[in-house]
Amino acid sequence: MDDVTLPADAARPTVPSDPTDLADLADLADLLRFAEDLARRAGRQVRDAALDRSDAVTKSSASDWLTPVDGATEDLIRAELTAAYPDHAIVGEERPTRGDTAEAQIVWHVDPIDGTTNYLYGLGNVSVSIGAIDADGPAVGVVHDVYRDQTIGAARGLGVRVDGSPAVGADDGVTSLAGRVLLTEWSGHQTWPGMDETLGWVRDQQGTVRILGSCALSLAHAGLGRSAATLIAGRYHSWDVAAGVLIATEGGLELYDTHGPADGLPPHGLLVAPPGVVADVWTTWRRAAERAGA
């Protein structure tokens, strides 16, 4: 995850009104199947690549790694997207934006390797993230868990699935973090405002915290009920969260941003959690952030 905030125009591209714009759920299902297959193939390329750690370089900081596999994988994804959908725009981590994000009917947001540091050091928790956004917000989201070889996908209004089969989403009966997991991420390689206080509150609720090093996986796991909540309170790019946010909300979780209940793709902090705990987590986060001067 980079040390950069999401550009305002990347969250929900302004597109012309079109009565056929993904109105038919069959169109969404087709896009989802395509993205699932592509993410799976890209993920297996990542897994099977002959990675030489000496070929890795850093970008914005000493903790922001880039490997040749990142670029090669994004090239694969872009080539397939462009061949299948030449009129769609593409925003990705490692290559310049393709197309006009303000005019394209669909904008794809691609992270070829979310969790590059984990990948470099063989730690697991590595994913390929592919999300499609239209005029109504996130439309399709796929996160492929590279080392589980598991593809988690969702399309707006169609629920969550794993490896192409419908999956049980999050547990909407959760009313406490006690005995459960909250996932979060660093802000780049630093703490986010109010992080210590917020995580202390989780501890006091007898919950536990994990930091995976992949925003996409942290959100996708929440959508499947593997975490009780996921809080991405630091800085991120659209490609870090575009797919995972949709998986979480299609899994039955509520989405909050820094101002409260939200939709679309929040640009400056987000929380996904079941109805029974989301308000408490959000209130704790925002109060802690305010006390930290944010």
TrEMBL record:
Binding-site positions, Mg(2+) 2: 93
Quick one: signal sequence residues? none
What's in the keyword line of the UniProt record?
A: Hydrolase, Magnesium, Metal-binding
Organism equals Beutenbergia cavernae (strain ATCC BAA-8 / DSM 12333 / CCUG 43141 / JCM 11478 / NBRC 16432 / NCIMB 13614 / HKI 0122)
Does the keyword Hydrolase belong to this entry?
yes
The protein in question is named Inositol-phosphate phosphatase
Q: Ligase: present as a keyword of the record? A: no
InterPro entries, from UniProt? Inositol_monoP_metal-BS (IPR020583), Inositol_monophosphatase-like (IPR000760)
Annotated SUPFAM superfamilies: Carbohydrate phosphatase (SSF56655)
Entry's Gene Ontology molecular function annotations = inositol monophosphate 1-phosphatase activity; metal ion binding
What Pfam families does UniProt report for this protein, alphabetically? Inositol_P (PF00459)
